[in-house]
Amino acid sequence: MVNILYCWVNTMEDSQKYYEIEILTRELKEGKEAAFDYLFRTRYKNLCRFAATFVVQFDVAEDIVQEVFEKIWKKSTRIDERASIDSYLFVAVRNACFTFLKNKRERVDLEDVKQNLKVSEEVVEFETPELNRLWGEIENLPLQCKVVFKLVILEDMKYKDVADSLGISVNTVKTQMKIAYKTLREKLKQEQFSLLLFLFGIKED
To answer: What is the pLDDT of residues 73-94, one digit of tens each?
Structure first.
C-alpha cells in the first residue's frame, strides 16, 4: 500500500512539473523516461483520434501514433525547446498519415467513401473542445462537399484523381472545395479556422 501511494505521489509531482512545456521538452531531449511517459499518457488518445480522421480505421491510427512516439523516444534530442511540442506531434502524425495513404492508394468508390464517413463519425471524438468543434463543422458540410473535402484534404488526393474517382468534373471538385472553405470560414472563429489550416496542412487556393 505504501509503495502504491509513493508511486501515485511521484506521478502527481511529475504531472505538475510537466505542465511547464519548456521543462517537458527539455527532459524529453535529455531522454527522461518520466517525461516520455507523461507525454504518452496525456497526448496519445487525442493523437489517435486525429489520425483516425485521415485513415478511418482506428487500429491503423493507433499503429501510426505509436510509431511517431517510438521515433520521438529514439530521436528525442532533435526536439526544439523553442517549438510547441503539441504542434510537433500533430504535424508528425499528419505527415505519417499522408505517407500511409500514399503507400496504400486505391481507386475510391463513392459508396465506400460514404460508408467510411459513417465509420469516422462513430470513432472520432476528441477530448479537446477546439478539435471537436473543427471536426464537427467538417461533418456538417453537405455530403458531396464533405466527400470532396475529405478526399482532397484527409487523403491528400489531387483534384483530377478525386474527379475521376467520383465521376464528376474537376471544376465541380474546385467548386465544392470553395464551398467547403467558405462554409468553414463562416462557421469558425478566425483562430479556429487558422488551426484547421495548420493541423490539416491546408493551403487555400
So the answer is: 877 546 666 567 777 888 888 8
